[in-house]
Design goal:
Structural class: alpha/beta
Bound molecules: nicotinamide-adenine-dinucleotide
Largest sheet: 7 strands, mixed
CATH superfamily of the largest domain: NAD(P)-binding Rossmann-like Domain
CATH class of the largest domain: Alpha Beta
Strand order of the largest sheet: 9-8-7-6-10-11-12
CATH topology of the largest domain: Rossmann fold
Number of helices: 14
Radius of gyration: 20 Å
Order of helices and strands: HHEEEHEHEHHEHEEHEHEEHEHHHH
Number of domains: 2
């Protein structure tokens, strides 16, 4: 039988496992299995050729018991409501495991931004904001970037919101450019946070990171920063990277500047000078110490998990490992840093961005990174301790920590 790759079914199954271990009462379990609120809408956009096309958009506010919703907006041709629901659920567990006073939400639009002009993208971004503006805000729900959305798109959305409400409100959205109230260190934050968790895992496994081989799948915001910071700040030897068009390999290590320049010129990492082209599937199966999936969901499956040779799998992407693959990797003794812990750096620094917007007082990058390290390392330790106490893998332990915190807030509010 083939695996069920519906991300929301996977997210619910993961919660079910945690609920059984925690002996969560049935009413609480059922409440936490579904989003509290969701919005579905169409966004008509005038295209450059004068025609109009309607795009389907979503915003899911999964749970806001611990604070305002928080979660990125994804522009992707394969976007589905179930993907957005899963990502919103994972945001709920991510903010809880990081112990920041926010809930979980997520947004998305079914579109292919690579086929759209900057003007069309701007009109889509503004149209999206007009649809969700009545339901968001710094004390309700705060969007941010995700796959195929970036600081420029956040800037257009911020401007649209401020035009509608007729005052400045930088805290309505995070991942903004610095000039509009963004935080130092936000763009590289997801990769930086992930590298802190890799350092913590390596310490547990008595591994040194200096010269340690690493492969990274996905070369967008997260993957490219993981390459640069992993090489420059942690001494990793990144031997392979890839994007949706294919991968590149050099056993002596890849220079992040050379790869970025090549990507800038050609739009893909393949055919980069002094490297050998490899397929995405080959990258995942390379004989490296650390594997970083930083692309999209369902990349490590029952079909390839038994071929993974890394000692640490650091899930910078959301949902890169299916449950069947997870079990296989556990059996092989691979240390998995689960997604909503590994990639929490983005939301932690988004939270810092919101705090700075509230105070109108901005921190230096060094302070942002120090505080990020403290926050994500505290979360890592809480998950590790839970894993030791309950004798469960890190992913299950992360759920136990997060679900306990969310359930406590729900109970204190008297909802269930
Ligand atoms: P992005 O759009 O900047 O980059 C995505 C990269 O993945 C691109 O290089 C794309 O070519 C590549 N890709 C897509 N499909 C692929 C495939 N099948 N095989 C190999 N490569 C493929 O997105 P991003 O912001 O870097 O996000 C990457 C992942 O990290 C996503 O799962 C996202 O949800 C997660 N994440 C992002 C943030 C953030 O702050 N940006 C925070 C937490 C988690």
């Amino acid at each position: 039988m083939s695996e069920n790759l519906n991300p929301f079914a996977i997210a619910q199954a993961q919660l079910d496992e945690a609920a059984a271990i925690l002996q969560l009462d049935e009413a609480m379990h059922q409440f936490l299995r579904e989003p509290m609120r969701e919005f579905h809408f169409t966004i008509p956009v005038r295209l450059d050729d004068g025609t109009t096309r309607s795009f389907r958009g979503f915003r899911v506010q999964y749970n806001d018991a611990r604070g305002p919703g928080k979660g990125g907006i994804r522009f992707h041709p394969d976007e589905t409501i179930d993907t957005v629901r899963a990502l919103a659920a994972w945001m709920t567990w991510k903010t809880a495991v990081s112990d920041i006073p926010l809930g979980g939400a997520k947004g998305g639009v079914i579109c292919d931004p690579r086929e759209m002009s900057p003007g069309e993208l701007e009109r889509l971004s503004r149209g999206y904001m007009r649809r969700i503006a009545p339901y968001i805000g710094p004390t309700r729900d705060v969007p941010a970037p995700d796959v195929h959305t970036n600081p420029q798109i956040m800037a257009w959305m911020l401007d649209e919101y401020e035009t509608l409400v007729n005052h400045h409100e930088p805290g309505v959205i995070t991942g903004k450019p610095l000039a509009l109230g963004g935080s130092q260190g936000r763009t590289p934050a997801t990769a930086m946070g992930g590298l802190f968790t890799i350092r913590n895992a390596a310490e547990l496994l008595d591994m040194s990171l200096n010269g340690t081989s690493c492969a990274i799948q996905g070369y967008g915001n997260v993957g490219s920063w993981a390459h640069r910071l992993g090489t420059e700040k942690f001494g990793l030897k990144v031997v392979a990277v890839s994007d949706e068009f294919g991968g590149i390999y050099n056993p002596h290590g890849l220079d992040p500047q050379v790869v970025s320049d090549h990507l800038w010129r050609t739009g893909k990492v393949a055919d980069c000078p002094e490297t050998e082209n490899i397929a995405n599937a080959e990258l995942l199966e390379l004989d490296v110490d650390i594997l970083i999936p930083a692309a999209i969901e369902n990349q490590l499956t029952a079909n390839n998990a038994h071929k993974i040779r890394a000692k640490i799998v650091a899930e910078l992407a959301n949902g890169p490992t299916t449950p069947e693959a997870d079990a296989i990797l556990q059996d092989k003794g691979i240390y998995i840093i689960p997604d909503f812990l590994c990639n929490a750096g983005g939301v932690i620094v988004s939270y810092f961005e919101g705090v700075q917007n509230g105070y109108q007082y901005y921190w230096e990058e060094e302070m942002v990174n120090e505080r990020l390290d403290r926050k994500i390392s505290t979360a890592f330790e809480a998950v590790h301790n839970m894993a030791q106490n309950r004798q469960v893998p890190a992913r299950v332990a992360a759920y136990l920590v997060a679900v306990t915190r969310v359930a406590e807030a729900v109970r204190l509010r008297g909802w269930v």
